Amino acid sequence: MFFQNLVELKKKPKDCPDNDGHNVDAIDALTIALPVIIRYSSNDRKTRNIKVMEAIKTIRNVQTVEPYAIALADFLTAVLSGKELKKATIDAAEAVGMSDLAYTVEHSSRDPMVACYIDSSFPAMLFMVYKYADDFEKGVLASANAGGENVARGAIVGCLLGAYHGLQGMPQWAKDGLYKKEEI
To answer: CATH classification of 24-176 is 1.10.4080.10, yes or no?
Structure first.
């Protein structure tokens, strides 16, 4: 919608973020926040969260994703600061009103397959991170193989598991094709 407003309707870029009430309030809105969270992870929480929402609102007119964006910012910042991943996941779940994440994971026979809508996709992402906290490879593959909206969820799952495990915790196949691999 941003680009349709820019190109077809010839709006100024600042007037292009939009919301159709259906497709914009989705987990993929959070992927733009990941590098911003990392960049501002050592700043105070208020500054970091302002920058996160500025980044998201650059291309989307969203309100529904804001509590999830803040929960993700707190989550990733905690992991980058050395917090144990399962504990950080439980904290993020509680921040968005999920008080039973561990129980849900432990009593589920399969991984969730959900659409992109934030109210179902964010809990599914938390499920994946919690369940596969000990294994980067199993986590990213399970997220991809669960189906549904697995692209943005996979980016966030990979970011969180990668932040926790570091490059040494990632399988070689995940690093082989990286552009500028040697510099990284």
So the answer is: yes
